Amino acid sequence: MITISDIAAQLGVSKSTVSKALNNATDISASMRKRVLETAAEMGYIGRRISGAQKKLCILIENMDYETPNQFGHDIVQGFRQMAEADGWIIEVVPLDMEFQRLTPYGVFMLDHSYQAAFVLGFSLLDPWMQEFKSTQIPTVLYDNYIKNNPYIASVGCDNQEGIELAVKHLTELGHSKIGLISGPLDSYILKARYHAYLSALEKYGLEINEDYIGLGYFVAESTRTYIPKLLDNGVTAILFSHDVRAFSAMTECSDRGIQIPRDLSIIGFDDLPMTAYTTPPLTTIRQDRIGLGRCGYFATGCLLNSLPIGSILLRAPLIVRDSTGPAPRE
Amino acid sequence: MITISDIAAQLGVSKSTVSKALNNATDISASMRKRVLETAAEMGYIGRRISGAQKKLCILIENMDYETPNQFGHDIVQGFRQMAEADGWIIEVVPLDMEFQRLTPYGVFMLDHSYQAAFVLGFSLLDPWMQEFKSTQIPTVLYDNYIKNNPYIASVGCDNQEGIELAVKHLTELGHSKIGLISGPLDSYILKARYHAYLSALEKYGLEINEDYIGLGYFVAESTRTYIPKLLDNGVTAILFSHDVRAFSAMTECSDRGIQIPRDLSIIGFDDLPMTAYTTPPLTTIRQDRIGLGRCGYFATGCLLNSLPIGSILLRAPLIVRDSTGPAPRE
Questions:
Q1: What average pLDDT does chain B have?
Q2: Minimal C-alpha gap between B157 and chain A (Å)
Q3: Positions of E strands within A25-144
């Protein structure tokens, strides 16, 4: 366990200087404080809560909307907050981007704000801090990401495999045999997982795997516009979407083109956002229980803070059948 | 939701008869009570806690010792108990066998004792209630077993894959290339998982997969006696065991035969039982945090009781390196 003395010795400064820097005292220069925090973080120093100080956790969000109840991240934050605040924690929600991560190491950021642990939402594999998570000793819970072999990191998410298998089973029972996928690019852990779950579900049900049934693209509207006609031309009669918002976009696109859902095309989303029940037609989708994900995130955080090495918590991902799926059209 | 009226209608008896049967009243015959419980269980009736009645959970144990601190199940039960009792639950530990399961359906047993949920330890794939778990609506948490697609069932366990990969990595770093496995038979979910984890770890490290390096047998001492000499004859220099107790047995066998551990043979256990630190030599093993498993079991139970569909919780399974592993002997 790294102590304040170790940091002082490494820097050749007094213990009181290190202590002042870590406690954000006013009588120390900004440059010395920065040196101390960086050295402390590099050495793996974990801030212990000073008695009387606030118990603080942060929720780090990149690339995910969460401010209003209709947005994906909202209920995850709420679920986490409800349980954590009941236990006396102060929760700070911190939206950030890649640039910020490039400028400030994760360890320095956490020490600087005296956060005891973090719950991390929306990171892609390209986020710079993902590299630091491999070796951090700060209790860190990742939603929809996974880091091997680091007992200070836990993961929470939904069972994509089970959810997507249920979706493919539902479509095969409706007579579909050419099932497509429209997804964001595979630079995220979870989109890779859903992509592989899609392939293995097709294989399980003996359906054709064909790259002409798959469309991957970053921009939602643009990739919908490109891939809906392409997949239909290739004989696809049902499409899985990696997110509900992509399925919503497909509804607009189909409406513009006179394609009727589900008569001409069945579609299935992923997430079960609040508005899925009110689209025209209401969307069949795979549910992520987001309040539950937040609660599990907090449970995992508590485990890590108590040295109980949770690796992963997966929620079921049930298929919610509404009206956007129907019998396959006759040839 | 099935009600008392539904059960009464199904049986053609009065609601008060059903209510008496479910509440174990004295003025009803044993045979009528049995009929009511069986019908209620078949219809999927879930006993709601009568106000003022005790809040009861059970831990069902088959084929696992738990009475003393040295036994595998002890700390799992303790971890569960500590958290559950703090929340006001009464916990009853119920050892049972296959014969009992054959005579009494799970649903009837749970209704009969007014248990709200169960934590299930040590079941093999052959246990009759495993079939019932596929469709039960009673919140049920399985240690080291997994049931697909039933939102009333959750699983807790350790990440076998990660643990066994760490073990194989450790052995390859010590120069071992012929690594064996001695395990119980593959009629259990978890032994299957460990067996496949062993195969995939060998593949990952480019090591030879050879059925002559593997010994599967039910009886511990007998299979040790058979397989230790056989594997050594086949050139194996290190053996993974599916449980610490099998590794203990191997130590005795090796001692009898003048085989020195780790000079002649490296061995690795699984579980990290308390006595692993005190064997001669102290055993390198893959740790299962059993207090933590019990705690996670209770967390999952609470989630299911609140309709939060946890699928699985996996703990890390770190490799604890002691003295039973060493450099591979020279040819």
A1: 93
A2: 10
A3: 56-61, 90-95, 117-121, 140-143
Residue A243: CB atoms within 10 A of its CB come to 20
Best of A307, A310, A312, A319 to disrupt the B interface (most B CBs within 10 Å) is: A310
- The DSSP annotation for B254-311 comes to HHHHTPPTTTT-EEEEEE--GGGGGSSSPPEEEE--HHHHHHHHHHHHHHHHTT--EE
Q: How far is A86 from chain B (nearest CA, A)?
A: 15
Which residue, among B313, B314, B319, would best test binding to A if mutated, counting the most A CBs under 10 Å from its CB?
B313
* Rounded Cα gap, residues B19 and B10, in angstroms: 14
ipTM of the complex: 0.86
Q: What is the DSSP letter of A51?
A: T
Amino acid A331: pLDDT:
66
HSE (side-chain half, CA atoms, 13 Å) at A249: 19
Q: pLDDT per position in chain A (331 positions), as tens?
A: 788 889 999 999 988 888 888 877 888 888 888 888 888 888 888 765 555 567 899 999 998 999 999 899 999 999 999 999 999 999 999 999 999 999 999 999 999 998 999 999 999 999 999 999 999 999 999 999 999 999 999 999 999 999 999 999 999 999 999 999 999 999 999 999 999 999 999 999 999 999 999 999 999 999 999 999 999 999 999 999 999 999 999 999 999 999 999 999 999 999 999 999 999 999 999 999 999 999 999 999 999 999 999 999 999 999 999 999 999 998 6
B295 → closest Cβ in A162, A295, A308: A308
Given a contact cutoff of 8 angstroms between Cβ atoms, the answer to whether B254 and B265 are in contact is: yes
**Has residue B294 got a pLDDT over 90?**
yes
Task: Name the residue in chain A with its Cα closest to that of B291.
Answer: A308
Q: Which of B253, B245, B265, B195 is nearest to B226 (CA)?
A: B253
Which of A315, A319, A320 is best to mutate for the B interface (most B CBs within 10 A)? A315
Residues from chain B that touch A296, judged by Cβ atoms under 8 A, are 303, 308, 310
Show the CA angle centred on residue B142, arms to residues B139 and B143, nearest 5°.
150
Partner-chain contact A314 B311, CB within 8 Å: yes
B177 near B143, Cβ under 8 Å?
no
The tokens for B62 are 């088959």
B309–chain A Cβ distance below 8 A for any pair: yes
| Any A CB within 8 A of B292 CB | yes
Looking at CA atoms only, how far is residue B191 from chain A in angstroms? 20
User: A95 and chain B: CB distance < 8 Å anywhere?
Assistant: no
